[in-house]
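Model it.
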Amino acid sequence: MCLAVPGEIREILPGGDAVVDFMGVRRKVSLDYLGNAAVGDYVIVHAGFAIGTLDRDAAHETIGLLAQLGGPPRDLQGPGDVA
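Modeled.
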C-alpha cells in the first residue's frame, strides 16, 4: 500500500527541489513532476516526489485526519529533517 502525504512548500531550492513542511517535519522534495509550484502551495508527496497540488481546505482536512491518527507517517519522523 502506498500513501501520499500533503505538505506545504516553504522554500523553492535551486535545481527543481523544494523544502516541504509536513505537520512540522520539513523534507526536501522533488518538484520534477509539477510545472509551476510556488511557496505556499500544498502538494501531495509520494516517495520524495510532489505528484500533485491541492487546495488549502483539502490539505488542512487531510492533515487534520492524519493528526487524529497520531501525526505524520513514521517515514517522515526522525533524522533527516531539513533545517
